């Protein structure tokens, strides 16, 4: 039994935080309009036995609050950021706080409070190191006649207490492990407070507690493994993962295991590496993957070493106390002159020297050139699903595609016709039970839902459910489900991954889907169940297996953090810096580095890059980027806009003659995301006789221009997260 030390002292203000979660009716999966969340309230009670309470509510997304005081007094309304005062008699009360968002959506919380003028008694304190978070300490305190408590965690330079409601837990993360004096002060409405203090040893977690995420299932032709104990990727067992390269006294390595998962551990890392049992020809691969964990703030480097061309290093930017995954484009190394055809070794360097890293899942990989799912149906007569059935929904698996466009050229699709069935869906039973392990957990569909077909107010969504058909009409009792929102009036690809997406088990006691072996039935449902609303949907290209091809050459992605696939950025009359410190870090863009675009008055200023091979706009038609243009950087009267132009670089200085262009307006002084879609957006062909961009195969150059051309006005822009995608 701990001995509690009671110390009575004077204090002026009592503070209480009330935490809650948002209403269960959160519809954020429908659109971006949500009810206020993380509703809190600050209660300040003057400690002079008057019962004067100051109430300061707060919430994310709230503009005002309705507060029912709980003592019969009239409710009060408080604006966001403001406070209200009320005098309570000694007693117990339930205070209700209704947070109201700008759209009228609401979230409500209730809190029982006690106004007492007795000093807190029977203070009991629990102090524990967090089991999963390094150097985090959790404190819980209970006491009679107390409303809240403050914890002084005793770290030098930080005298600010952390407050929490009595009976709830407060947490604090120390900079360093060690022994600290932790002091807890319990407070009620009386002048006196009650204290407890304890010397406590704060510990650091120095090794991962869980394995890195298992690699996805890949065909053997699409991967060359170096080391991966959790994947189905076989690697050369003669690889030496701990060779002695004259590291001297700093040489400290060893194998580490989590369960049956073997992991490489490099301790006191100056340099260490892997000596391959046989040279690897990775020239046909596209990426190098690895997962790295560190307990410290240190980083590291990895260098593939070629027999013919030496070594080139890639900086591994690590996050302490978690696995960091890397998929490094091999073009990063080949652009530096490294041959990928004769890789004999890998080297790891500490940055700075001396730290410890854990490494797992090292392999080369490429996107599958011929993705073959395990179960599929394209509704063109190609597939292995023979048991499609409608359950309360009409079903036609050979329906003429009513919306043929570049997003779906198929002639026939599946028609889903819910005429008001309460539990309408379409379904099929596989020939054998699903094995969702090893990355074989992914289902994809294309879907088009015309808005004109919908009645009622159900959310626009698609549910994919897995069940055990062996229970017949009771198969629904075994259900696990993933729900995805949908956009109306467009073809889109939806992916349901039972290995990584949030899922709902109807029976909460059921295990994780990837650990189950009883599932063999697929149920697809549009716009939810238990209603009589109507909806039509058109479904195509059902696939089950591993993660399907999500991208195809050419690749054009750049977050300007040193990991992009674009290596040919160039300025043409505009200054260009692809590693510029983000001057406007905020909620809309937290990236530390961005591309700086600086037009100092060049008549045709722009930035540009080329790709290999040429763009196939039927496969991928969209270019997306983030942009920030400060109004203070602009001169002249040009319209605030951004142009994305595609050209044929083969014409050299005359490539502009082949140009097709999309222009979008921009808003100043804010980060915004803009998408240029050469299938659905309005485009301008410089040569009026050129075909639609989607029908061209000569385009390989991207030109980005801010605020127009043929002028000498100035503008600075910051660009981030460029992506070419489907």
Furnish the topology, listing elements before pairings:
Elements: E1 13-19, E2 37-46, E3 52-60, E4 62-68, E5 76-79, E6 84-87, E7 91-101, E8 106-115, E9 121-129, E10 136-144, E11 148-152, E12 162-165, E13 169-173, E14 178-187, E15 194-202, E16 223-227, E17 252-258, E18 261-269, E19 271-280, E20 287-294, E21 299-306, E22 310-311, E23 314-316, E24 322-329, H1 330-334, E25 343-351, E26 355-365, E27 375-377, E28 389-391, E29 394-400, E30 412-418, E31 425-429, E32 442-448, E33 461-467, E34 480-485, E35 492-497, E36 504-505, E37 521-526, E38 535-545, E39 557-558, E40 570-572, E41 575-581, E42 593-599, E43 606-610, E44 622-628, E45 641-647, E46 660-665, E47 672-677, E48 684-685, E49 701-706, E50 715-725
Antiparallel strand pairs: 1-2, 2-3, 3-6, 4-5, 4-7, 7-8, 9-10, 10-13, 11-12, 11-14, 14-15, 16-26, 17-18, 18-26, 19-25, 20-24, 20-26, 21-22, 21-23, 21-25, 27-38, 28-31, 29-30, 30-38, 31-37, 32-35, 32-38, 33-34, 33-37, 34-36, 39-50, 40-43, 41-42, 42-50, 43-49, 44-47, 44-50, 45-46, 45-49, 46-48
Organism: Mariniflexile soesokkakense
Signal peptide: 1-21
Keywords: Signal
């Amino acid at each position: 039994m701990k001995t509690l030390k009671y110390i009575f002292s004077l204090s002026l203000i009592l503070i209480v935080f009330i935490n809650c979660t948002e209403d269960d009716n959160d519809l954020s999966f429908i659109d971006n309009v949500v009810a206020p969340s993380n509703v809190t309230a600050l209660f300040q009670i003057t400690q002079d036995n008057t019962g004067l309470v100051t109430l300061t509510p707060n919430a994310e997304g709230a503009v005002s609050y309705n507060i029912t005081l709980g003592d019969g007094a009239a409710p009060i309304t408080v604006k966001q950021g403001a406070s209200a005062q009320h005098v309570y008699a000694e007693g117990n009360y339930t205070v209700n706080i209704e947070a109201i968002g700008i759209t009228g959506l609401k979230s409500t919380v209730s809190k029982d409070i006690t106004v007492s003028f007795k000093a807190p008694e029977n203070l009991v304190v629990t102090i524990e190191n967090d089991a999963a978070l390094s150097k985090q300490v959790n404190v819980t305190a209970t006491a009679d006649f107390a409303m809240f408590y403050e914890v002084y965690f005793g770290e030098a330079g930080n005298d600010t207490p952390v407050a929490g409601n009595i009976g709830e837990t407060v947490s604090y993360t120390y900079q360093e492990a060690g022994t600290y004096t932790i002091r807890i002060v319990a407070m009620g409405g009386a002048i006196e407070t009650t204290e407890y203090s304890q010397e406590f040893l704060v510990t650091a977690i120095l090794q991962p507690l869980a394995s890195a995420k298992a690699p996805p299932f890949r065909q053997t032709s699409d991967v060359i493994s170096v080391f991966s104990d959790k994947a189905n990727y076989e690697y050369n067992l003669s690889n030496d993962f701990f060779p002695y390269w004259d590291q001297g006294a700093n040489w400290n390595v060893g194998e580490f295991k989590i369960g049956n998962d073997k992991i490489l551990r490099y301790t006191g890392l100056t340099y260490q590496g892997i000596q391959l049992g046989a040279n690897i020809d990775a020239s046909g691969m596209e990426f190098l993957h690895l997962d790295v964990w560190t307990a410290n703030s240190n980083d590291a480097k990895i260098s593939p070493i070629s027999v013919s061309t030496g070594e080139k290093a890639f900086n591994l930017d690590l996050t302490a106390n978690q696995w960091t995954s890397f998929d490094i484009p091999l073009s990063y190394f080949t652009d530096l002159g490294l041959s990928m055809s004769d890789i004999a070794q890998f080297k790891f360097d500490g940055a700075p020297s001396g730290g410890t890293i854990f490494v797992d899942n090292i392999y080369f990989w490429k996107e599958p050139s011929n993705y073959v799912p395990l179960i599929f149906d394209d509704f063109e007569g190609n597939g292995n699903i023979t048991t499609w059935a409608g359950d309360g929904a009409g079903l036609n698996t050979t329906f003429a595609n009513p919306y043929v466009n570049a997003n779906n050229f198929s002639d026939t699709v599946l028609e889903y016709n819910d005429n008001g069935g309460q539990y309408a869906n379409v379904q099929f039973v596989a020939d054998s039970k699903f094995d969702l392990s090893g990355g074989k957990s992914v289902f994809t569909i294309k879907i088009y839902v015309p808005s004109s077909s919908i009645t009622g107010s159900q959310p626009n969504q698609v549910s994919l459910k897995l069940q055990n058909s062996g229970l017949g009409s009771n198969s629904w009792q075994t259900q696990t489900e993933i729900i995805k929102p949908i956009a109306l009036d467009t073809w889109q690809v939806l992916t349901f991954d039972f290995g990584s997406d949030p899922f709902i088990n109807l029976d909460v006691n059921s295990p994780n889907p990837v650990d189950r072996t009883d599932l063999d039935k697929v149920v697809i449902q549009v716009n939810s169940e238990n209603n009589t609303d109507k909806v039509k949907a058109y479904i195509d290209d059902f696939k089950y297996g591993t993660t399907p091809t999500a991208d195809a050459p050419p690749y054009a992605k750049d977050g300007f953090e040193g990991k992009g696939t674009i290596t040919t950025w160039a300025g043409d009359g505009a200054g260009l810096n692809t590693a510029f410190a983000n001057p406007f870090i905020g909620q809309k863009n937290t990236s530390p580095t961005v591309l700086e675009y600086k037009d100092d008055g060049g008549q045709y200023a722009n930035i540009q890059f080329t790709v290999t091979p040429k763009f196939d706009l039927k496969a991928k038609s969209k270019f997306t980027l983030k942009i920030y243009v400060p109004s203070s950087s602009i001169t002249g009267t040009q319209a605030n806009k951004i142009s994305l132009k595609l050209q044929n670089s083969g014409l050299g200085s005359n490539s502009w003659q082949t140009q097709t262009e999309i222009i979008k307006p921009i808003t100043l002084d804010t980060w915004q995301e803009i998408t240029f879609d050469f299938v659905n957006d309005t485009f301008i062909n410089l040569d009026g006789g050129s075909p639609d961009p989607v029908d061209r195969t000569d385009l390989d150059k991207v030109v980005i221009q801010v605020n127009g051309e043929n002028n000498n006005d100035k503008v600075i822009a910051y660009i981030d997260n460029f992506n070419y995608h489907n």
